[in-house]
Amino acid sequence: MKLSVIGCGYLGAVHAAAMAELGHDVIGIDIDRARIDELSVGNAPFFEPGLPEILASATASGRLRFSTRMEDAAGSQVHFIAVGTPQKKGSYAADLTYVNGAVRDLIPFLGEGDLVVGKSTVPVGTAETLATMLAAAGTGAILAWNPEFLREGFAVKDTISPDRLVYGLPASQTAAATAKTLLDEIYSSALDAGTPVIVTDYATAELVKVSANAFLATKISFINAMAEIAEVTGADVTQLADAIGLDARIGRRFLGAGVGFGGGCLPKDIRAFTARAEELGRGESVAFLKEVDAINLRRRQRAVDLTVEALGGSVFGKKVAVLGLAFKPYSDDVRDSPALDVAVQLRGLGARVVATDPHAIANARKLHPQLDYAEKLEDALADADIVVLVTEWEQFRHLDAVWAGGLVKNRIIVDGRNCLDAAAFRASGWTYRGLGRP
Ligand code: UDX
Questions:
Q1: Right CATH number for 201-438 from 3.20.20.370, 3.40.50.300, 3.40.50.720, 3.10.20.30?
Q2: The two domains 2-195 and 201-438 share their CATH topology (first three levels equal)
Q3: Quick check: CB of 256 below 6 Å from ligand 1?
């Protein structure tokens, strides 16, 4: 099928490449000329495992092209809207400027029966407004809402083989049937593999996405709240998580206590959900999400406090080796990263922070040139007064206590992701401090 993808940021670039990989003929459109130039020659603009390979093969085959001109979307049967919905400045609400702008600019190039598919994460009610916009312009195009659940680091796999597909379809039965037929054709390989499909209305589709992210954020903050209780009782939150996680109704995933969640989705999505619920007069229904956010931010502070405490009350002038900058492993994304926040706070307290990360240094440096960065782990560790692990990359999870002990000045480590073998570190003469652990 001929598809266009409007917006080639994280979501759009991966979606465009994945759709081309599935055999569709795809044009990706974005206003950012530099990004389009990179993508056109098959270069991924960010670190994402598997993306460079599919980008290179699809651009070389001619199945995937990129452009800055919206008119190049003309002739595609289906148009995906994959632009960003960032947090508005000075507010919790989502900024819909790009979504509204993308649809408005696409309208002149839409043909009768074209399908416009929203993938961006939006406040509930947005699809209805966009459908009205399309109808008022007399385009004859149909709108569907098909939220995306991809995780950074697993984005290609999540797009090609999703857990589930959600189709938010229009009320008109004829339009809904046309939209469903087109979506089924686009996703035929996932459907053949047995991926479940939830066929629903716009509002439900929009809410599935925000409520899924709200639930995940709540699960993380729940275990982090238990970590706070563990800290004043001598309990161990990692054992607690293992024990409650064995209850199949609860499950162990997303019960990793530590410095909490970050990234381009969970923090902004729970805030936008709160703002939207308040607009709808239902603020009390999701008031707990403010607690979820507050607990999450407290855990970064706790990692900083623990570091200060472990150094006897001050980090001033001390060398702090910070392991990790990305908001999570397998990503170079530092948006709202707890790791970067901890590094910046420690620097603010007068520490000489030397941070290292396998992929995120360049992005972190753009935002915080005041920090010192080391490309090599051993340079970060050399003569450090304390080590603070804040992103659980493989190489940090498997940090050898004896080897690292030979490099640092003091064998003190704060494990902000509870991912190290505490016993092995203690056996090698380290003072080990985890979050929510004795
Ligand atoms: C998330 C959703 O998982 C995805 O479905 C949605 O489409 C976009 O938002 P992503 O932001 O890529 O994806 O990351 P995710 O793997 O969900 O992790 C989010 C944050 O939670 C990370 O900072 C991670 O370190 C943190 N986290 C995760 C924990 O602190 N503890 C855990 O147990 C799990």
A1: 3.40.50.720
A2: yes
A3: yes
Q: Is the CB of 295 inside a 6 Å radius of any atom of ligand 1?
A: no
Please give the CATH number for the structural domain made up of 2-195: 3.40.50.720
Binding residues, as ranges, are 30, 35, 85, 121, 149-152, 209, 254-258, 262, 268, 328, 335
Among residues 99, 115, 265, 306, the one annotated as catalytic is 265
Interatomic CA distance for residues 331 and 325, integer angstroms: 10
**360-371 pLDDT per residue, tens:** 999 999 999 999
Band of pLDDT at residue 113, cut at 50, 70 and 90 = very high
β-bridge mates for residue 226, sequence order: none
pTM, entire model: 0.97
ipTM attached to this prediction: 0.97
Radius of gyration of the chain (CA): 23
Residue entry with tokens 């003569």: 383
CA-based nearest residue to 51, from 78, 110, 11, 107: 11
| Residue 262 CA, closest ligand 1 atom number | 23
Q: 352 - beta bridge partners? A: 319
Phi first, then psi, for residue 421 (nearest 5°) are -85, 100
Domain extent listing, the chain:
2-195, 201-438
Please report, as a single letter, which amino acid is at residue 3. Answer: L
Tens of pLDDT along 34-83? Answer: 999 999 999 999 999 999 999 999 999 999 999 999 999 999 999 999 99
Instruction: Dump pLDDT digits (tens) for 150-199.
Output: 999 999 999 999 999 999 999 999 999 999 999 999 999 999 999 999 99
265 is catalytic: yes
Token pair recorded at residue 147: 């939220």
